[in-house]
Structure formats: C-alpha cells, structure tokens
Amino acid sequence: MSEELLILFSFLLFMGIFAGVGIASMWVKQDTTDDYLVAGRGMHPALAALSAVSTWNSGYMFIGFIGFIFLQGYSAIWIALVSTIGQLVAWIWLYKYIQKEGSERNLRSLSSLVSSKSGAPEAKLAAVLSVFFLAIYAAAQLTAGGVALKSMLNWSEIIGILIGFVLVVAYCYAGGIRASIWTDAAQSTVMIVGSTILCVVALSKVGGLSGLHDRLAFISAENPGVDLVDIYPSGLTFGATLWIAAFFLGGLGVAGQPQVVSRVMTLKDDSDRKEAMVWFFVWQTPFIALMFLIGLACRAIFDGVIAPEDAQTGLPELAQSLNPILGGVILASIFAATMSTADSQVLACTAAITDDIKPEWNQDHGKTKKVTLAIAALATGISLVGQLFPGFGDSVFALVVFAVYGLGGIFVPLILIRMMGYEPDSKHTISMMVAALLGVLVWTIASVLFADGDWPGGVFPSVPGIGAAFAVHFGYCLRYEKSDAKSNPFGRYKMPTRQISAIGAAILLTFVVAIETSYLVAAPSEGSSANRIGDYEVTGNLTYYEIASDSEYILDGEDTTIELNIGGPEEDGEFSMLNVVGVRATLTYADDEQSPVGCGSAEDSVSGNLMYSDLQVTEEVMSGQMFQLLWANVSVLDTTVSNMSKSDIIDMLENPDYLGFGDHSLQISVDVNKGDCIDPFRETSDDGEDVSYLWELITLDYSITMV
Known about the structure:
single chain; 707 residues; Sodium/glucose cotransporter; Jelly Rolls; 2 domains; four-stranded antiparallel beta sheet; 19 helices; 9 strands; 14% strand; elongated
C-alpha cells in the first residue's frame, strides 16, 4: 500500500470515529432551541473544557501558529506564554461573570450579554459584528482544512473547503452544540496524543533539544536578518512592552470569542466552571508546548525546502514525511479541529441572529436551523473567494488574528466594565464597539499599506482595539458630574486615590523599564544573525568583463588617458546588480625601434596607471602583461576563516556603497629607450609605441558556510 493510501486510510478512519461520536449525541439531544445552542446548560465540565481546547486552537494552531513559529523561532514563546496567562485571567474572572449572567438571564449569545436586554440596539450591533468576524473566522478554518488536505493528499483546496462545509452542516444538524462538544472532546484526545508522538519523532530527527538549537543557530548564521534563537525579535518600533501586552490582551480576548464563550454557557453553575477551568489548562498547556516545539522542528527540518511564504504547511509536511499512519492521524486532527471550530462559530452566529437580530425566531427551531445553513454557506463563500485573490484567503494566521482581535476588542472591554457594575447605556455601548472596530481595522490596514503586511512595530491589533474602546469609556465618564454614578468608570468600585494611583503608576513604570531594558540588552540588532563569531568556509570566483579595448600610438615621453563611466544601480547599468571588486588592464605592444648597423637596441618602458576615486595603482609592464586595481580582500577565498563573524567576512568581500561604479581612468605612458651607436653621427629611430589595451571589470561571486 502506497504512503498516500495509508494517509488516506488513517484519515478516513479517524474522521469516521469523530463523525460517529457526533451522531451518538443525537440519542440524548432534545429538539429545542436551548438544547441546540447551549445543550440545556447541563454539559459535563470535562467535556466543555476539552471542547474549548479544540475550539480555541482549531486549525489556526496546526496551520497558522506553526507557520508563525516557523518564521519567528524562539521569540514566538511570548505569544504562547503570555496569551496563556491572559486566558487564565479570563477563566478566573470574566468567565465567572459570563456563566453567572448567562444562567440568571437565560442568555445564549455573547451579544446579549453586553446589553441590558436581548434585541436592544447595542445587542443588534454586537450580533452583526459577531456574524461579520465569525464568518471570516470560520472561513479561515475551512481554508486551513483545505491547506492540510492539499499538502498531504495533493487535493485541491477547494475540495477540502467543500468537504468542510458538508461536515459543518452535518455536525450542526445532527445535534447542535452538543454534537460539536462531544466531537471536540474526542478530537482533543487525538490532538494531544498525535502531537506528542509527532513531537517525539521530530525531535529525534533533529538530534533532540540540543540538536534542534544547534540547527536553528546554524540557519540563523547562514541567513542574514534571520534570528531564530533570539528571545526577542528585532525591529520592534514601539518596544517590547506593547508587543508583549498585545499577546496578553489576545489571550484575555478569549472571553470575547462567542464560539468559546458558548461552551461556558453550557455549564450549570460556578463549581462546574472551576472544574472546567482545571481541565482546560491541564489539556491546553502541554498542547501549546508541543506545538511550539513542533514549529521549531519544522523550521529545522524544512529550512530551504519550504519557502517562508509557505510556512503554514510546515506541520502537514512534517507529519507526512515521518510516518504515513501518523500523518493520517494528524491530518484527521487538523481537519476535524477546523470543522469543529467552524461549526461552533456557525452556531454562535446562529444564536446572535436568532436572539438579538431577529428575537422573534429564538424559539423557532426550524428557522434556527435555516439560519445555521445560511451562515455556513456564507463562510464557505468567503473561503472560496479567498482562493481567487492571493493575499486575501491564503494566510490563515492573518485571518484569525483579524477576527480574534476584532472580537476581543469589541466584547472584552464591555464585559469588564459590566462585571465591575457599570451599566453603560446604548449610546455608550455602541460607541465603545465602534471605536474598537475602527482601532482593529485601521491598524490592520496600516499594516498592509505601510509595513509590507507585517504588524506596525510588531504590535498585534489587540492593543489599538481594546485601547480605543476603553478610551471612549473613560471619555464618556468624564462628561458626567462627579456626583453622578456614571462618572465613576470603575462601577461599584471606588476611584483610586492619588496615593494608590501613584503607587500603581510606579509599579507599572518599573515593569515597563525592566522589560524595555531587557529588550535593549537581549534583542538582536538588524542582521545580528550575521554577527555571530564562528568558523566559516569561504568560496568564490572572480569574473572578468571586457569594458573597453583599442590601441593608441603614444609618443616618447607622453601619455594618453582613457576615461570610462560604469553605470550604477540608480542608472540600471549593465553591471548594476554585480559585486564589482576591481578593474584589470592588459597592455600589449611590440618595440618598433629601427637600429642601423653599428647601433644597439633597448627596450622601451611602458607603464599603466589605473585610477578610480582615491584609489590607484601604477605599474611598469612588459608586453602582454596584466595589472589590476583590486579593493576587495580576496585572500580569504577558498579558505576556512576562524574567529570571525559572517558580516565581517562580507565586509571584506562585498562592494561597499557601490564602490566601482562611476568614473574610471586608464593612463598609459611611454618612455622610449634608444640603443647606443658606435658612429656618433648615427642614431636609432624610435618615436613612440603602438600600445593595445584590454580594460576589464572584475566582479566576485562568493558563498560563506558556517563550519
């Protein structure tokens, strides 16, 4: 049996198991809208937690997060560590409030939670924004599934997207959120087991943790501008504090993800929430650690094989290259995770529409399912359109970042202030949501227009999104009289005194100074990978390009100068892309001295002078002899250089500041030497020399390999 068939067999086997688990949920479901959207609020905490793990990680973790680690190296640890801390804060405080409010007010959607009543104007806007972002998010999941199938089975991404659509609809119609949670729990188990095996095999392939580090260090040294073993990335315009804070807010933003919050709403009470929290982090933490190591191993194994723009295919390629059966299991995990997350997002959109946009449908089970079908079709359409426009649907990580931080910016600030007891009115709430939306949109657009598709200054959109929402909140509070309860932005909590504010500011300042100091010390400079001291093997060859040739008759005691201009990069000249390191001239002549009888002969003296900028070389030459002006140190070619950095070697070999382009001169001088005659009334006839010249430009190609 071929490897492709083995992968397909194991993939179909596990997909069949997942489907069977989903179908089994039909035996205990009830045909009510409450059971369809929140499982009757009686879900077991362990199942809800495992489902949250699978839903939160989804295809983004397998595809997008692995691709992010592939490109960033060690510095990606911050998104893994700090976002986990943000999630912990969300589970401890925000989810407590969400579970309590959801149960007491019988809420089924996150959009209802940020308003005083379902169907209010702010709830409608929140629902519309939820549908907008979740449709994009679900489209990213379908795209991730398509990427995985294409990478491992060479199927068209469109086929994978359409298969995903069918499965999403099937999951939703089979048992609603109950089917989704049950299959999620099964998938979480396969995800953690399969990832553990994959990580062990991958590490053994690269020589363990030490071998992994050595390989990443080698790649960094070989590629200027790549720093895979540095804890900080280079070029953080706004420093490390905001960069790290963005990841924390991103983790906190899990409380703004309707598809995850819906799992919390299926829990009966706070004790179930606490139990679910333990299950979540017992499962989530090692999974993130495994993904981090696998992402690094992908770079170590596939560097130079997978192009940076295809980094998101790292895990599928790794799984396929190691073991066909394991590859099928991983493929099934990726695909099932994407589908499970997508169906959760579709159901969350359904709850938002039926509870807030069209509240008259909230108990109509038939219309609820039609809404589900329409949302699934919308997400599929977005994913398919994305295949037609490169740069739109081909980056899963970018799509997820946009949706995650958009939802987090919209919902988290409102949940926080309502949790503190502040009851914003409709205008207040809508203004905060619009500000968050604009913050994320403007920041995302700026990243494309002004930073070549990278986040400006290295900061994810969570900071401008949440920051803009809170700015509006505090602005509204300043409008009210101090005696008015609405003037206190902290709700039922007292405004901090000046002393408390000063202490808090001092602590925050100390924290910021510590982080920025560590960044200044530990962060790599631009191109620092090329500054590592080591042993390098240097090879190269010189190439000679004819730039002029002719002959000149030069009289005794005189000289002639030939001028030449070499067009540089700004002129798009012939040699503009070459590493020019010198010039060479070859002078050829034949002494035409006529010596009568009784007279001797003597060799004439011919010298050449090569001049460029403030560099020159003068040499007396014999006929056919070459001389050159060389400004690169080529003595290191075809040698092993020790105790130097790659950048130092490059400085020896490279053309600094386009040296070699511009005006050149070749000066040829002739000094006639006449032979002596016995008869003083006779003399030799020699007025000068006919000198032919070949003038060449010298370029250098080289390679530097770390030994």
